[in-house]
Amino acid sequence: MQAIRITDTGGPEVLGLVDVDVPTPGPDEVLVEVAAAGVNFIDTYQRSGVYPMTLPTGLGLEGAGTVVAVGDDVDTRAVGDRVAWTDALGSYGAQHVVRAARTVRVPDGVELDIAAASMLQGCTAHYLATSTHALREDDTALVYAPAGGVGRILIQLAVKRGARVIAVTSTEDKAAIAAGLGADAVIDYTREDIAQRARELTDDRGVDVVYDSVGKATFDASIDSLRPRGLMVLYGGASGQVPPVDLQLLNRKGSLFATRPNLANYVATTDELQWRAGAILDQIATGGLELHVHERYPLADAGRAHADLESGTTAGKLLLLPERDA
Ligand code: NDP
Fold first, then answer.
1. What is the extent of the structural domain holding 115?
2. Looking at ligand 1, which residue's alpha carbon is closest to its atom 3?
3. Ligand 1 contact via 57 beta carbon (within 6 Å)
4. How many domains does the chain have?
């Protein structure tokens, strides 16, 4: 079968399509024919060496497909089940083994590629909006990359919870997407001062919570946008990782709170994974949540997908589709 492997860290060119043996599921695993694998920023951090990996390695944490074999101890999944997952390294491949307990059933009415697109970014948006900070009606949230994978879902969840969203983005097209999803106001950071606008839009109070996925380029502006005792949620580094911060900054800027969360700690148990992923998939199934696929790439074009995601020009989910033998 075909799969993406890296033998060295580096740019998108290190992603190589190779022929490998079909893996055999262990006792608690299932073998899945992958319909689609999701491309996420963490894959680019792993590829480039920002997050160290043992090499050689496959890439891709997220996908969806149909179970084609089950391990001896698995009684919760059967051949033919449609499943999705969010934390199984090596998902960029035609087939993949996943621990049965880490798979989620895909409801009827949700296509497998949409399920693949919704898992990692959907669960992330879910924990950000419900757990890192449980958004309420009187909250104002500053949301970066509102037209992106996580951003689009986060805005929709925030609006459903009654929060007011101020989106921060780079183009008119993306601003229109954010407004269409329910953002109350949009800041164009290419021509506006983020913190100044955030203060103007909140009658000089500052926002209650910032969801910052851009990182290095925006951290200072995010801090300056918060109200006293507001919460800084730094959950990504699309522009680069934020350098070490002196905690006295939180004191000087108004007794702020800050957190740097990651998905693994919010879907650590099977129950929590099923709750978050189930909530996202059910809302998609009933039309309550809109997902947008930016582009579907053949598996062989994984490098192009990575370059596109890192360029900052995409708007929505990037998927890799394995080719099926005729
Ligand atoms: P997006 O689809 O949001 O793409 C990234 C966006 O970031 C761009 O489209 C762009 O939007 C913005 N951006 C600003 N500056 C840059 C830059 N210098 N280079 C590239 N992009 C830039 O990606 P994802 O939804 O996949 O991920 C968003 C972020 O969330 C990533 O940082 C990722 O690491 C993080 N993440 C964190 C998780 C966690 O649990 N902590 C889990 C999942 C994702 P614009 O033009 O609007 O500024």
1. 2-120+264-321
2. 148
3. no
4. 2
Residue nearest to atom 39 of ligand 1 (CA): 262
Question: CA 145 from chain center: how many Å?
Answer: 11
d(CA 241, CA 228): 25
Query: What's the pLDDT tens digit per position in 92-106?
Result: 999 999 999 999 999
Question: What are the pLDDT digits (tens) for 223-280?
Answer: 999 999 999 999 999 999 999 999 999 999 999 999 999 999 999 999 999 999 999 9
pTM of the model: 0.96
Is 128 within a domain?
Answer: no
Strand ranges for 110-252 from DSSP E: 140-144, 164-169, 185-188, 207-212, 226-234
Q: Is residue 326 domain-resident? A: no
Nearest ligand 1 atom to alpha carbon 317: 2
From the CA of 309, give the closest atom in ligand 1: 4
Is residue 146 domain-shared with residue 252, that is, in the same domain?
yes
Report if residue 284 sits inside a domain. yes
Q: Are residue 268 and residue 220 in the same domain, yes or no?
A: no
For residue 45, being part of any structural domain is answered with yes
**Residue 82 and residue 158: Cα distance in Å, rounded?**
29
